[in-house]
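Hey, quick one: can you model this chain's 3D structure?
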Amino acid sequence: MISIVLNGRIKNKKAVYEYLERVATRLNIHRLRTKSIEINMRTRIAKGQHFGDCWGDTKEVEIDIARHMDDGPVAYDDILKTMAHEMVHGKQYLRKELSGWHETWKGKETKQYNNTPYSDLPWEKEALELEDILYKECWEAFNKK
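Sure thing. Here's the predicted structure for all 145 residues.
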C-alpha cells in the first residue's frame, strides 16, 4: 500500500485514514509501495481563498488542507471532498500526468492554458469531476449518517 501520512488535527482520524486508503485504491495508486503522500491539516492556507494545495513529483506528494477560512471553520464534508480533490492531483503527480508547478500536462507544456479559467484547466477538470464521486463512494458509502 502507498504510504499515506496524515499530520495535524482532524476529527475521526482513523476513519479519515481508511477513507484516504479507499480513495487511493479508487485512483489506482494504492499499490505504489515506494511512493508517499503526506497530508498536512493546517489552520489556514496562506495562498488565496482555497481549501487545499498539492505539489509533488513521481516519488512523493505533499498536500495541505485548510481547516479554517476567513469566514470561519471549513465544514467537515468540505474538508473530506478537498482531500479527494487533492488526492486526484497527487495521482497526477505520481503518474507523471502533471509535473513541475503545472509546467507540463501529460507530457506537453501548459503554456497553452495561460488564459484558461481555473475550472477549465484539464488537471482541475479531472479533480473537480472526481471529488464528489470519490467522496460518495469512499466516505458516504462507509459512514452512513
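One thing worth noting: The mean pLDDT is 93.
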